[in-house]
Amino acid sequence: MRTPVTIIGAGLGGLTLARVLHVHGIPVTVYEAESSPSARTQGGMLDIHDYNGQLALKAAGLMDEFHAIVLEGRQAMRVLDRDGTVLHEMADDGTGGRPEVQRGELRRILLDSLPADTVRWGHKVSSTRALGEGRYEVTFADGSTVVTSLLVGADGAWSQVRPLLSTATPEYAGTSFVETYLFDADTRHSATAKAVGGGSMIAPGPGMEIFAHRESGDTLHTYVALSKPQDWFAAIDFTDAAAATARIAQEFDGWAPELTALITDGDTEPVLRPHYALPIGHRWDRVPGVTLLGDAAHLAAPNGEGANLAMLDGAELGKALAAHPDDIEAALTEYEQAMFPRSTKVATFQGTEVVQGIDSDDNTAHGLIAAFTDEHTP
Question: Which of 138, 103, 106, 105 has the alpha carbon at shortest distance from 29?
Fold first, then answer.
């Protein structure tokens, strides 16, 4: 295949696509808004599943590099009641299919596997437009442009490529995370570190949830989930860290102090992360020379599958293009016909999402344990 592929977005999905294309000798350029690979931290832990994310890494020829960055023991998981009692615990015995890695490390091995000039940093897209006959012009914030006949939008929730295919826009999903970190947790926050344990910890309640994960370097990374309208969060001044954490902690009045310390004792300012989603089953009619992957195609509220799906999208698209070197439309059709139902199935599967059913009266530790038991009962 001689047609160069233009990818917008150097996230995990776009980079996986670029790597698979590179493996197959297909020319590719990735345009990324960030100024460099280290322009910002890349988020926390990801569990990479053996049924999607790892399949993508195999297609990319990066399984050895992946195994080298796995954090041993982090698949351990426990469920706590609001009083801090551990009601359920699963150890990491090394046989699970969802090993944990740092997102930044995963991105690094993908970047390291590509020629140095593959990613063009500092290229924020301001608009895209069709030129006819399957050709597209991408305009960047600095006024420069690029024209391509094979354009892939891997540019996330607020994709600038999506309007070429669909009028759908993300809508607020009804929940938000407030993100905090505790550093040197075993020495500085010992009771909280003990409560979290060696892997992940979930403490649920109706309309709320505390999810914490032990990362590398003795760090506890917490996502506090609340089912509240956007106006409720807008009334909180997150530029005043003390006031914001106090207001969030107020919702957890009466919970064990080792749990609420994940909110009140944070070593970083709390960060609000509202959840948005595209309509379940979002799809489009085939348009020559352009497609989407990952959140640009099927954004959903956090469900543990987003990064894995984006990587699988990238790998499957790359494989389809390699399998149809003389027929781009056949490749894009094959990819989309598999991607649409795959993403819909994940979005509608009850039980995959950390905050699934958060408003339910059954969103309690006992309710979550019952769900786990049902899931693992033959």
Answer: 138
The span from the CA of 208 to the CA of 251, in Å, is 8
Inter-residue contact 101 to 70 (CB < 8 Å): yes
How many Å apart are CA 262 and CA 276, to the nearest integer? 24
Instruction: List pLDDT tens digits, range 304-324.
Output: 888 999 999 999 999 999 999
CB 373 within 8 A of CB 365: no
- Closest CA relative to residue 48, chosen from 40, 36, 38, 56: 56
How high does pLDDT run on average in the chain?
92
Tokens representing residue 315 in the block: 């790998």
pLDDT of residue 374: 60
CA gap 61, 110 in Å, rounded: 10
Residue given tokens 């987003």 in the structure block: 306
| DSSP string over 198-226 | TSEEEEEETTEEEEEEEETTTEEEEEEEE
The span from the CA of 245 to the CA of 191, in Å, is 19
Cβ(147)–Cβ(289) below 8 Å: no
Specify the pLDDT at position 377.
45
Name 283's Cβ contacts closer than 8 Å, sequence gap at least 6.
Answer: 336, 340
Distance CA 349, CA 346 (A): 5
> What's the one-letter identity of residue 100?
E
* Secondary structure E strands in the chain: 5-8, 28-31, 45-47, 77-80, 86-90, 100-102, 119-120, 125-132, 135-140, 145-148, 151-153, 171-182, 200-205, 208-215, 219-226, 271-277, 290-292
Quick count: other Cβ atoms within 10 Å of Cβ 315? 25
**How confident is the model over 346-370, as pLDDT tens digits?**
766 544 444 447 877 778 887 888 8
pTM, 2 dp: 0.93
